[in-house]
Amino acid sequence: MNPITAEKTQLGFVGIGYMGRPIAQRLLKSGFKLTAYDRNRGKAEELIQFGGTVAGSIAELASSCDVVLSCLPSDDAVLHVYRGPDGAFAHMRRGALAIDLSTVDPKTSLELSRLGFERGVEVLDVTMSGSTPVAEQGALTLFGGGDQGCFAAAESIFRVIARKYSYLGPTGSGATMKLVVNSLLGIGMQAIAEAVALGEKAGLDRHRLLDVLAETAVVAPAHVGKLGRALKGDYSPQFPLRLMNKDLGLILNLAAAVGAPMPATHAAFEVNAAQSALGQEQDFSAVILQMEKQAHVSSAESGSTPGQVRHLRQAVTR
Predict the structure, then answer these.
(1) Would you name the residues annotated as active-site residues?
(2) Which of 275, 270, 196, 286 is nearest to 238 (CA)?
């Protein structure tokens, strides 16, 4: 495949959500021509101010683009966009390229590759690590699966949206790597939530606890900002809780398929699911609230009195 250039390539982008919007916006600002489609037309129309155009259907978008990118919330949504008579593959030109940025089961990536092959369309599964602010800065980390030549040809796209991008191997490798990464992200957030609840329950002042914890070497960079936002009671979604809940389910499905025991991931999934079941659109860091709830502490009840700490010390030394 010839290298993709902004001057000669028409991009299509399906899924203008939390991550799709800033990615598409950066591509437009870098000089790429881009047509957007979203079930919510208003989301796609937000890109007009940056020079984007809006397609009325997936078929319309696919038939006019050299590269179709998708950033969608579920396996079902991805398959719906690409397959069937109204799907992208039925209308893309032979030799075109599809780049799916969604977090999906590796089996879904394999199915996309199979369907694309039947239509003469190359398919890459290029998953990403990073939240909405990271996407806005063009500092994502990308994991690629599929044909290595196609991955290299698309580097002009990756350079605009990512700080680092790596080719992992054949189809499904990008999807698999994303699940590996998100297992650490989810388990790490769960561990932090438990630690915060423990500190509060033991009598530490919540503000000081979160502030100091963020300065320690044991908290990963991806989680540091979550502590600062929790300090302010800000759980607005950067990486939505419902999507982390979905991803943990995919991780456990993959683990079961390959025979990898993941007890910590099971625990994180249960707590994540409990908070997600409340139905609020929150960031995945809201598991802190769930652990505080289970420990019978809350932001309003944070802090301690000298008497609480003294009682704890007496209990420990008995």
Answers:
(1) 178
(2) 286
